[in-house]
Write a structure and sequence with these properties.
heterodimer; A: about 450 residues; alpha/beta; 6-stranded mixed beta sheet; 4-stranded antiparallel beta sheet; 18 helices; globular; B: about 210 residues; mainly alpha; about 75% helix
Chain lengths: ~450, ~210
């Protein structure tokens, strides 16, 4: 019997087997924007387009140190692939080999099936956006000139490059009034936005990002991460992102490659799978202690059973309150007349006419937020009940910690067995050999 | 102050004529020095091992007395401006080469990496990235070289009347008119201050991007 091959064009050439019950492998995907315009979803159908193939690449330096050791990675098209690992794991070296700032000692890298050494090095680099820590802007050029750099190198005329630069400033959320400023007049976060705009200027299919957000403060960093995910969903770039921050990797990555010291691949998997089934003790240790909790970010709270029973408006009559003060709900959630939550009240006290409110902590948005947000809300609430609100902030229901725990158990039960049971996983994180349907669709949808 | 601007006729120049001549003899060497130092500095920035020997050679030249230069050069260039300008050019290198190296090295590491990653060719990179960013450091060197050149021109008086304002010093001695010495010294100092100010202004115009 002829071995089955994934029908994706790239897999046809490298002979990767499809997943069970499908004609395609687990790296195959079509761009599709989810309902809430979140990251692109993975699908077990459509074109398989691993754009960059790093094929058993080794980088050894003359002094004998090995920065990257026989690394093989298939970087899928139109997704964010994160290289993460401790310092000295060769992640930046790997990134720089993709645009030939560093040449590999062994192995080869192909872009769209072509060896990257086939075309002139500067042409290759101009086809890849590059974003770096501290932005690396040209201090002597204005913001708009900085962004227009690569279009100008490619021979666009001045006006064309300039209008493109202004368009990109808007896309990355920079005020157009900054166009004529110089880099030193901008904050670190703004400079980094300019860096992203500059990398996008010539509309390259590939973006290489080397710890771009690690030098800005956590609040700004979160904003930049959200922005990057949004821009990627809009433009469908293939992004290779290097970081040492595993939380950042899990937050923005569609695929995460964990590298260990000496430049060896420890695991290559979607973030949810990384959290549920770390390949070995190194990956588990690198993920940190609360990976179980963090993994809940990948489960939607949409299926969580909410009850609106204990919700009362602040102008309710005594009878209405009394009707809701049943034994299962010792506390009632009081809302304003618009339905926005104000706080919890002891049912007995409320019936008795007291109006002391207990703060409700923070709410989660029903249908959008994850089970992690719901659980967090319940844990922080003094009553142990999480408050769910709609997009406008009106309370739609509450859920007890027990209900959330049941939802978590149910969500786990729906996963394929190899994800539930780490013992059954291929330790190399080799998706192609994993049985069953890809998990990504289920956990991210 | 009667004789301050009255120049003895043997100098064959008016006061302003001397000033113009002095500037010419002082600034041409700095200009040539810069033209020589730019490629040498770039070379040293690229091949770091060259820096120490280069600095050694320029320092040795700097240590040579100008009189010794003159003795050698008179056979070739005679009693001319050129004979004064050549040693001054050589002296300017000792300041300009390190300034250019500092300038090229002042390009931030990440800016360098970004330029490489964006696909700048070597020539474009030099003209559009390295050189403009090096301007503040180059100007720092240029100011020192210019001021010292303006003061050094006066030694040209040693080989006959080739020292421009410096010739006034010889005449002050010769005619017993100390006012001529004052005229020489004060004018040279004022010139140096003015030209230095002009350079500062020029640098500001060239680098609107620099942090102030």
């Amino acid at each position: 019997m002829v071995p089955r091959r994934c029908k994706g064009p790239l897999c046809q050439t490298i002979g990767r087997p499809p997943t069970a019950g499908s004609n395609y492998c687990s790296l195959t995907r079509v761009p599709a924007v989810s309902e809430n315009e979140g990251p692109l979803l993975w699908r077990a159908e459509g074109l398989c387009t691993a754009l960059i193939l790093i094929d058993s690449v080794t980088k050894r330096y003359p002094d004998g140190t090995t920065a990257v050791d026989r690394l093989t990675l298939e970087i899928p098209d139109g997704a964010i692939t994160v290289l993460v690992g401790p310092s000295g794991c060769g992640k930046t070296t790997t990134l720089r080999m993709i645009n030939r700032m560093i040449e590999p000692s062994e192995g080869k890298i192909t872009l769209d099936g072509r060896d990257i050494r086939e075309q002139p090095v500067n042409a290759l680099r101009r086809s890849m956006g590059y974003v770096i820590q501290h932005a690396g802007l040209f201090p002597h050029r204005t913001i708009v000139e900085n962004i227009a750099t690569v279009p100008r190198l490619l021979g666009w005329d001045r006006g064309q490059a300039r209008s493109r630069a202004l368009e990109l400033m808007e896309r990355v959320g920079l005020d157009p009034s900054l166009a004529k400023r110089y880099p030193y007049q901008l904050s670190g976060g703004q400079q980094q936005r300019v860096g992203v705009a500059r990398a996008l200027a010539a509309d390259p299919p590939v973006m290489l990002m080397d710890e771009p957000f690690s030098a800005v403060d956590p609040v700004v960093r979160k904003g930049l991460q959200d922005e990057l995910v949004r821009i990627q969903a809009e433009l469908g770039k293939t992004i290779v992102f290097v970081t040492h921050d595993i939380d950042e990797a899990i937050k923005i990555g569609d695929m995460v490659a964990v590298l260990r010291e000496g430049g060896r691949l420890a695991q290559f998997a979607p973030p949810a799978e990384l959290l549920s089934a770390p390949a070995d003790a190194f990956v588990e240790d690198f993920l940190g202690l609360d990976r179980g909790i963090r993994r809940l970010s990948f489960f939607t709270a949409a299926g969580l059973e909410l009850t609106a029973l204990p919700i009362v408006a602040v102008d309710s009559t005594a009878e209405q309150i009394a009707a809701r003060a049943v034994p299962q709900t010792p506390y009632l959630l009081v809302t304003d007349t618009e339905g926005r939550p104000l706080g919890w009240a002891d049912a007995k006290d409320l019936v008795a006419g007291s109006n002391t409110l207990i703060p409700y902590g923070h709410s989660f948005v029903a249908g959008r937020d994850s089970l992690r947000a719901a659980l967090d809300s319940a844990v922080l609430s003094p009553t142990g009940w999480a408050v769910a609100v709609d997009e406008d902030g009106r309370a739609v229901g509450v859920a007890a910690q027990e209900t959330i725990a049941a939802a978590i158990r149910a969500a786990h039960a729906e996963l394929p067995s190899y994800v539930r049971d780490p013992g059954g996983t291929d330790p190399a994180g080799n998706l192609a050999s994993n049985p069953g349907e890809p998990t990504d669709q289920e956990v991210k949808a | 102050m009667g004789g301050f601007f009255r120049i003895p006729s043997d100098l064959q120049h008016s006061y302003l004529g001397l000033v113009g001549w002095h500037l010419q003899e002082a600034l041409i060497p700095v200009l040539f020095g810069l033209l020589i130092a730019l490629p040498l500095g770039q070379l040293c920035a690229r091949y770091r091992w060259l820096y120490a020997p280069m600095l050694g050679i320029t320092t040795v030249f700097y240590a040579l007395p100008s009189l010794a230069f003159f003795v050698v050069l008179i056979d070739y260039t005679g009693l001319s401006d050129t004979t004064v300008e050549i040693p001054l050019t050589v002296y300017s290198l000792v300041v300009l080469i390190p300034a250019i190296i500092d300038g090229v090295r002042s390009v931030p590491e990440e800016t360098n990496a970004a330029a490489t990653a964006m696909g700048f060719g070597p020539v474009r990179r030099y003209l559009q990235v390295d050189l403009p960013i090096a301007v503040p450091a180059i100007f720092a060197g240029l100011r020192v070289a210019t001021v010292s050149s303006i003061s050094l021109v006066s030694v040209g008086a040693l080989i006959g009347n080739e020292g421009a304002l410096g010739n006034l010093l010889a005449d002050a001695n010769f005619y017993h008119r100390p006012i001529l010495a004052w005229s020489s010294v004060v004018t040279t100092a004022v010139l140096a201050i003015l030209i230095d100010g002009l350079l500062v202004l020029l640098r500001r115009l060239l680098t609107p991007w620099a942090v102030r």
